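HOLO CASE FILE
Compound: zinc ion
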Amino acid sequence: MATRESRPSTALYEKCMKKMLDNWPVEAGRTEGILETFREVYDEVGEDRFRRGVQDIMQSSEIKFFPPVAVFRGYIPAPIGRTWWRNPECPDCFGTGWQEVTPQFRKPDGTWQDREVTRCRNANCLKVEA
Ligand SMILES: [Zn+2]
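Model generated. Tokens follow.
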């Protein structure tokens, strides 16, 4: 367990959470619970990985509402310096780490819908060397 002294600073955490709460507004009563739950993740993974997870999830077109913490965890990158890989047998991304949510197609008006992808969230996909 991390000691209180080793906790990362709160400034970056608050900035990240403000970005997400601006992006996906929640009912007033939910904010405090969300801040607490995500804080645990922040303390666990550290500010750099947390920040990158926030950047990544905010670019995902699939997330329309404030994400549950379990979904957010899928966007946190593996620790730097650790060997990690995607499962090539993964039925959702076939080892690419990306899942297609919208295929590219031609719309009735003749313009193209861009292909949209999101990080693979299959629980057995990301392998990290201990
Ligand atoms: Zn996968």
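CASE NOTES: Residues 16 and 51 are 7 Å apart (CA to CA). The longest strand covers residues 98-102.
CLOSED: yes
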